[in-house]
Queue: 2 jobs
Job 1
Amino acid sequence: MAYDIQGPAQGDGLADVLERILDKGVVIAGDVSISLVGIELLTIRLRLLIATVDKAKEMGINWWENDPRLSAQADTLATQNAALLERIDKLEAALTAQTTKEATLS
């Protein structure tokens, strides 16, 4: 008489589960509110998406592509932005001065 020894049932490994989660995507959402005597003091909204980049793009999520803080050029962009804001302030001041001058001549 022969006996077959069977091991534990073949389960999914961690890599298989992770692959499945990343392929399909998982969304975790929650809100935490702290209130005192009916007055809301603090609300924290948590939205977490776990997916591959390809899956996120497929869902229309690509915020990391346009976020300057995630760019290697973040410092350059901040400097350019500050320079542009300074130029706008100078142009507005010149325009205000010109408008005032024309109003006093009229």
Note: The chain has a mean pLDDT of 81.
Job 2
Amino acid sequence: MNFPKETKAAILVEQKAPLEIRNIQLPQQLEYGHVLVKVHYSGICGSQLGEIDGVKGHDPFLPHLLGHEGSGEVMATGAGVNTVSPGDKVVMHWRKGAGIESQVPKYMWEDKPVNAGFVTTFNEHAVVSENRVTKIPESFPMDIAPLFGCAVTTGLGVINNNAKLKIGESIVVFGAGGVGLNVIQGASMVSGYPIIAVDIFDSRLALAKKFGATHLINSQNKDPEKAIRKLTGKKGADVVVDNTGNTDVINLAYQLTSPDGKTILVGVPRKGDHISIYSLPLHFGKQIIGSHGGETDPAKDIPNYIKLYENNKLKLNDLITDTFELKDINSAIDGIRNGTISGRCLIKMDNNGT
């Protein structure tokens, strides 16, 4: 397999601006722990929209590459790599898995450096750290595989590791995007009840019902607090999950959590935005938990979730509602923002000839 000299990528050049699709030069030598992956598909997560919008403040690494969930084939490996080999099909993920954490790769664009993290997926070829790829079966669908990079692993991890939701416990999920739908699916798998999905788009709520939500609330049309308390009683829900990062929603999520329940924060507020809560209940059993990708261990969890999917225990096909080419990635991002894309959106890479 030829080692490519350049590849096409979507580059974040300026915050709050469209990504630029350009050819960049790949490193011509793989360093210790590096893995060169021919990317097949990439997902788009809310985290990338946050990076574009600058929710964490000034970005000192511009221009840089994006993307943290994808699927691909290993083309070559650097020294020390022993968990994957050339020809292996892999999931690309942002949580640390097995293997070496390498130094970040060095790409070039018009004789200037383009920064990248330990994994990027908005590029047709990517040099990633060994501990950001996990081998999958040769026959596994490459369009389903990216979901294990973030959406599925985070959503199910929230249920397994953060919420530890038990049979019959109630859960409210604010935000029914890719991660939220899998929080809902996970809650259904462990027989939570009621499973209340809250969103501002009816199309996403329709998907939430398909993935196991027992009650749907469009917060544009109904007062979510009144509607939720009608279902859970004055005590509130055992678990409330926020995927939005909106501080008003986080405050409401905390208020709607029972005195001995858990508020789980998946979404990240914009830098400078602060929540305001009455903290006394935290001394008597109430909890606020900041989730970090559902505390997923990719090396252990991805094979387990693949087994569930292959045995029809995990619904993922309906999660993917839209697929775009890399050249149209900005249209895909716009569709996620305005709600015309209801589920997970994939970018299909046009690199079959390389």
Note: The chain has a mean pLDDT of 96.
